[in-house]
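#struct-help
A.M.: can someone run this one for me? Single chain, 344 residues.
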Amino acid sequence: MSKVSVNIVSWNSMRHLPETLASIDAQTFKDLSLMVIDNASSDDVLDHVRSQYPKAMILRNTHNMGFSHAHNQGIAHVKAHCDDPENTYVLVTNPDVVLERDYIAILVDQMSHRPDVGSACGKILKLFEGEGEFGQGVRSGRFDSTGLRITRGRRVADRASGENDDGDYDRTEEVFGVSGALAMYRVSALDDVAWRGEYFDEDFFAYKEDIDLAWRLRLRGWQALYVPRAVAHHYRTASIKERASKLETAFNPHRQIKKHINFYSYRNHLLTLVKNEHFLNLLRDMPRIGWYEFQKFAFVALFEQRTFKGLADFFRNLPRAVEKRHMIMSRSTVGSGEIRKWFK
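D.P.: on it. Structure tokens below:
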């Protein structure tokens, strides 16, 4: 019998959390539990959860421990109280997503029939701030994510992000990995790739930890599945970025990203490559990888010199990343050729 734990990490998340929790409470799949791991919020998150969802479990941190550590706390609790890790799932959930009523039921049904699938996601559409019905956000027909894709230059992005939902992504299919905004993981798969009790890499703190986990799952032979019948919505700000021309985006893809995100993204991308890249694939695609890295380096040098702190921090974390790499590669069951097919 399948069970699901919906795990939410909150940090001053009252803006959208009530809507997220209401959509979880309305799920047709009922054998689920709710866990909120709070990173020392200063708003009314905990009061709201306690009053409206008294059965929910709350883990309270005394300071902001980051995405990775907080979710690891939740996953560790699920694993410790799990009798059947093959049929127990953790839905890693952002506090700003809204699920359609059958989202969880559809993913569980798909994964229960595919024991080789370690992670899955549905069709995630953008949800914009605004005066929607009953004061809720404005739902769009534009994709937020249909899973993760990776290029030969090792740029990883949400597949179909920003595109209109015109029916091109209505087929259930395997993807490189799933977005951490709303990801269903099989507990046995998470346990299979854990490093000293860490499922998400805690050296990452936040950003790109879902990419690293997706790659590690791939190297151990776990599949990732995109299931379009499962639909959810993710809040996004309708900003200039959404209206930017392709030319503007090409020359300045980072202009809407905050500086602290740049720091973690720049550093964690490099750590991900160190941990998971096959040398044969690295040599094969070195021109593309080198060009992509040069473009990022040049942009940082010209416009965001503070992000170089991320490069310095990368070297500080490099010895631990190499140690993790030895473990990952020694346990890998998938060769460079199998991984290479995802680089497009």
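A.M.: thanks! The first helix runs from residue 17 to 25.
D.P.: also worth noting: Confidence is low (pLDDT under 50) at residues 238-257.
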